[in-house]
Predict the structure.
Amino acid sequence: MSKDLRFAMLLDCYGEFLTPHQYRMTELYYCADLSLGEIAEMVGITRQGVRDGIKRGEQILLKMEDTLQFAARLCALRENYTALSESIRAIASQTADNASVQEECRRALETVQQGEKLL
């Protein structure tokens, strides 16, 4: 079973829809990067039981994302904030001699950065 790191983000978005047991195993697997054997030892079940729990958790997370598209929207917002920041910096560097434009760029960049923090 190869690790698909998008599940770490899906876990952040939809983890509350998993049982506490599924959440813990999925978090240990994707976020703590533990092996199935290590998780099995920690939670006291078989390696196959861990695999089954993680697979069921993945199915739930994928179904939630297919329905709500929250993680995809969050990624798109992050990309948009990055693009805005780059554009503002480019404008600022091209208008270095204009103090009023520099001030507007500074304020715009500050606003974008505040938005990024909320994500």
